[in-house]
Amino acid sequence: MSIAKKEYKRITTKTLVDMKNKGEKISMLTAYDYTMAKIVDGSGIDVVLVGDSASNVMAGHETTLPITLDQMIYHAASVVRGIDRSLVVVDLPFGSYQSDPKKALRSAIRIMKESGAHAVKLEGGKEIKESIKRILNAGIPVMGHLGLTPQSIYKFGTYTVRAKEEQEAEKLIEDALLLEKTGCFAIVIEKIPAKLAKEIASRLTIPIIGIGAGNGVDGQVLVTHDMIGMTHEFNPRFLRRYLDLYNEMTNAFSQYIQDVKNGDFPSDKEQY
Predict the structure, then answer these.
(1) Which residues contact 216 (CB under 8 A, 6 or more apart)?
(2) Does the predicted model carry a pTM greater than 0.85?
(3) Domain that holds residue 255
């Protein structure tokens, strides 16, 4: 049965909760610059994530760990300038919130003041509860992130599916309930069994947005550069490529080079 969709002029944290209550799925994609943000926002996306995946996608690092708070603020500010409708959520980068709740608050305040973003996202559960509380007490909305948390990749040692074992699955549920109780407005859950993700989404009143977590959650998020095929080395099971821009762009560049070298570009109509 189809669900009537409401046209939202501006997406807020309350909008996302309303969408969950109405059974309307939430769409979320990444952006790291003004041009991409303008396109993604104009398409009608609900949430734009300025992810620390910029460390991989934009800077070529192997992990998300190297990106700094200053760099995240730069990317976030660029994105916000291209947004008219979407909710903009920004990742707090590794090292800016884990060990010191006061530092976490300072980091979140800098992102909000210097970029104009609407919310921040933090990875982890019980261990970062105090950091989340500090940020929330300052009036800054927080999105949680559980399951595979890329900032902890060296702790995990692998990007494999998380929470397949009963003990880890129980902790994941406990952390999700804790994040909701603490005041997070939504949670991203990454690369966990679909059955577990569906159970979490059914038990919580806040939206659960999945990546590699099946279709039983309240919404989905992908890295834009992956789903439009600008990257081609990364091929997890959960990724659907809607375009093959890597090959299309390569062909366009090759044609341009050929036209320049042959003297076909610019033509008489393309000069003054």
Answers:
(1) 194, 195, 197, 198, 201, 202
(2) yes
(3) 245-272
